């Protein structure tokens, strides 16, 4: 859909910001590890134990707020596509090319709809049709 030059321009706009967000999470995890290294429960955990076993991280550390924060930060790094999240956070300031980029990268139409402030899918589809027509694309083949 998008040409390489447009894609590169969009990516250069958020790479530094997403890099800083990831760096912040890695630092937070590092601080958590420093606390965990000094924990008296540290030697009681077996890393490959199943969560339900008494010597697993979940069983030994599950109630600890540091463990919970570390798991949360790790999940944020692992499960979120920070590039997509960053662009969606722009909300109504998203450009047409950024919307197309989001679709290419696997963002859901529903998440784009909410970011743009549309109350229903028909509004988003109309918006997308206008973008496609402005680029000279046939809408029946793109959607």
What does this entry look like structurally?
This protein is mostly helical. Helices cover 68% and strands 0% of the residues. It contains eight helices and no strands. It has helices at 4-37, 57-61, 65-79, 82-89, 96-104, 109-116, 121-134, 139-142. Helix 1 crosses helix 4 (82-89). It is elongated, with a radius of gyration of 21 Å. The termini are close together. The relative contact order is 0.11. The model has no long low-confidence stretch (mean pLDDT 88).
Brief summary:
Helices cover 68% and strands 0% of the residues.
Helices and strands in order:
Elements: H1 4-37, H2 57-61, H3 65-79, H4 82-89, H5 96-104, H6 109-116, H7 121-134, H8 139-142
Helix pairs in contact: 1-3, 1-4
Unreliable runs, pLDDT <50, ≥5 residues?
A: none
Distance between the first and last residues' Cα = 11 Å
The chain-level mean pLDDT equals 88
Can you write the helix and strand succession as a string?
HHHHHHHH
The radius of gyration over CA amounts to 21 Å
Structural class by sheet pairing and helices: mainly alpha
Shape: elongated
Strand-residue proportion: under 5%
Main beta-sheet annotation: none
The share of residues in helices is 55-70%
The number of helical elements comes to 8
As an assembly, this protein is single chain
Count the E strands: 0
Question: Characteristics of this structure?
Answer:
mainly alpha; 8 helices; elongated
